[in-house]
């Protein structure tokens, strides 16, 4: 049996299902293809304010009202309490030294608030539930979903591809005018088309080890003094990062009793602990980090540990005649700072616009080429920053300062877009902004090469000067000592940096439900 469709999307994670829904809303026949079944184990991931805004923009532009409640913790809990979700009020970082008790001095902490209260907070996505919901919503919109697919590439038949599909109860050939690959790093098209794989220029080779757990203790309930004063948000209601020389551990808590946790580390650390052994390696790591060991003392592993022997990935080709990779299949840098979500959603927005405005026209290949260039450039920007952070995990003062380049760019970009001024932030991490992008890259390159001890204080001051024109969140203020709450007063004071009045910021805060000082 032979079948045909306008667009075939491979991979039914959140990105594939969202892309399929958008293509369907644009009037195309769409088939969504999946190798496995739902629900399934997927690593936990967390949204950011920019991620949630991009999600909202796509849902509104392409008439996907069922997705809107998932952009905020409060509306998610009201509308879909059945979908596992975690409360994320900010980014929590603690710096550790192997085999030493945690020093709770504020110099070893970085707390960056993302919301003033739970109602409009970000979320951790419990992907088994989240992805399954999106697949069912895609089906409700008319996307044809096929799971348990064994895929093959029969031919490249311009202007599309012909795929062979084998399932337990059927097999057929599918002719698609456009195949969109959302199957992740080294996914189907990367293998079937024998696409080249490139290495990142700066990022060290890293490995990952992760699972899901129950009964992970909250840091606030542990017998640890984390310095005096009220924290900007409850420290456990966040994406928690335990940073050490050569790697970091993430802890993401869901409201169903499950916690996603794992470690990303350089090859040096991963080989020393022998990540390939799974659970024994995890226990060896905890033995080196007393505070984290206490946090996981009563934890129960829910799935066999997943060992990723090579986390980073970059495809040498992104699009061709009749096919294109989503950013999540183009490359992966690291879970650090949750850069993958906004990169993917920005890419989906650009690809959706190309389909909306240029489908079937001679201009469409050019639009795919532009999409490819932008995707690679933004992926490179994320890679360079993450590489700089890895290079300085042994010195938390530099690590914390470097992270402000991300938080300043992200908070400025989100605010500009919410004010209806997307032209102020056209690129991820403001990499093409002449006043921010170029000086940021110089700082990042210097950090990757390594800093002499005598240069670190001036380096940190230079970061503060670079972010200042785009700093709308009070970042880098020495008086705050690495604790940065989400405050309306900071946005009001920064109105001029965005080319608006205080009253326009006040209206924005009211629209967004941003209450507080």
Give a quick set of tags describing it.
517 residues; alpha+beta; FAD/NAD(P)-binding domain; D-Amino Acid Oxidase, Chain A, domain 2; 3 domains; 9-stranded mixed sheet; 8-stranded mixed sheet; 16 helices; 23 strands; 37% helix; globular
Overview of the structural elements:
With about 525 residues, the chain is α+β, with helices and mostly antiparallel strands. The protein folds into 3 domains: about 1-80 and about 125-200 and about 315-370, FAD/NAD(P)-binding domain; about 85-125 and about 205-310, 2-Layer Sandwich (D-Amino Acid Oxidase, Chain A, domain 2), CATH 3.30.9.100; about 395-510, no CATH class. It is about 35% helix and about 20% strand. It has 16 helices and 23 strands. The protein has helices spanning about 15-25, 50-60, 75-80, 125-140, 190, 265-275, 280-290, 290-295, 325-330, 340-360, 365-390, 395-420, 435-450, 455-465, 490-495, 500-510; strands at about 1-10, 30-35, 45, 85-90, 90-95, 110-115, 120-125, 145, 150-155, 160-165, 170-180, 195-200, 205-215, 240-245, 245-255, 260-265, 300, 305-310, 315, 320, 325, 330, 485. The strands form 4 sheets. Strands 5, 6, 13, 14, 15, 16, 17, 18 and 23 form a 9-stranded mixed β-sheet that branches. Strands 1, 2, 8, 9, 10, 11, 20 and 21 form an 8-stranded mixed β-sheet that branches. It is globular, with a radius of gyration of 23 Å. About 50% of the residues are buried.
CATH architecture of the largest domain: 3-Layer(bba) Sandwich
CATH homologous superfamily identity of the largest domain: FAD/NAD(P)-binding domain
The CA-CA distance between the termini, in Å, is 64 Å
Largest sheet: 9 strands, mixed
| Shape call | globular
The number of strands is 23
CA gyration radius, whole angstroms: 23 Å
Q: Beta-sheet strand percentage?
A: 15-25%
CATH class of the largest domain reads: Alpha Beta
Q: Tell me the count of domains.
A: 3
């Amino acid at each position: 049996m032979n079948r045909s469709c306008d667009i075939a999307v491979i991979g039914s994670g959140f990105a594939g299902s969202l892309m399929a829904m958008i293509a369907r809303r644009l009037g195309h026949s769409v088939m969504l293809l999946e190798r496995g079944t739902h629900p399934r184990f997927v690593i936990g991931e967390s949204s950011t304010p920019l991620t949630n805004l991009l999600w909202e923009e796509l849902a509104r532009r392409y008439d996907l009202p069922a997705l809107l409640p998932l952009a905020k913790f409060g509306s998610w809990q009201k509308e879909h309490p059945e979908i596992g979700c975690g409360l994320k009020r900010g980014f929590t970082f603690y710096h550790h030294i192997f085999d030493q008790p945690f020093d709770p001095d504020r110099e070893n902490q970085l707390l960056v608030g993302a919301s003033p209260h739970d109602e409009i907070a970000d979320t951790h996505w419990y992907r088994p539930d989240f992805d399954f919901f999106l697949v069912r919503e895609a089906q409700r919109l008319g996307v044809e979903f096929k799971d348990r697919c064994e895929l093959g590439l029969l031919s490249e038949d311009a202007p599309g591809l012909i795929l062979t599909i084998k399932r337990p109860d059927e097999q057929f050939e599918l002719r698609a005018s456009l195949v969109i690959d959302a199957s992740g790093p080294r996914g189907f098209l990367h293998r079937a088309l024998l696409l080249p794989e490139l290495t990142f220029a700066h990022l060290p080779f890293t490995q990952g080890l992760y699972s899901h757990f129950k009964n992970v203790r909250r840091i606030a309930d542990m017998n640890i003094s984390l310095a005096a004063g009220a924290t900007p948000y409850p420290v456990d209601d966040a994406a928690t990062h335990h940073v050490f020389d050569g790697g970091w551990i993430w802890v993401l808590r869901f409201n169903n009793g499950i916690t996603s946790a794992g470690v990303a580390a350089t090859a040096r650390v991963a080989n020393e602990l022998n990540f390939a052994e799974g659970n024994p390696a995890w226990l060896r790591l905890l033995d080196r980090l007393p505070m984290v060991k206490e946090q996981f003392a009563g934890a129960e592993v829910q799935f066999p540990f997943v060992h990723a022997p090579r986390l980073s990935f970059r495809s040498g080709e992104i699009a061709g005649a009749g096919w294109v990779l989503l950013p999540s299949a183009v490359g992966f840098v690291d879970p650090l700072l949750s850069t993958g979500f906004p990169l993917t959603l920005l890419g989906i927005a650009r690809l959706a616009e190309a389909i909306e405005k240029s489908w079937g026209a001679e201009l469409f290949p050019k639009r795919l080429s532009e999409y490819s260039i932008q995707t690679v450039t933004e992926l490179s920007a994320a890679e360079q920053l993450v590489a700089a952070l890895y290079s300085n995990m042994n010195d938390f003062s530099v690590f914390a300062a470097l992270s402000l380049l991300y938080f300043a760019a992200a908070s400025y970009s989100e605010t500009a877009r919410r004010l209806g001024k997307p032209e102020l932030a056209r690129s991820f991490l403001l990499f093409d902004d002449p006043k921010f992008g170029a000086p940021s890259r110089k700082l990042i390159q210097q950090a990757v090469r390594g800093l002499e001890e005598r240069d670190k204080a001036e380096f940190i001051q230079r970061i503060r000067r670079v972010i200042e024109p785009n700093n709308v969140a009070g970042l880098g203020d020495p008086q705050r000592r690495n604790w940065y709450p989400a405050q309306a007063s900071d946005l009001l004071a920064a109105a001029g940096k965005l080319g608006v009045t205080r009253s326009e910021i006040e209206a924005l805060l009211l629209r967004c439900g941003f209450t507080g000082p």
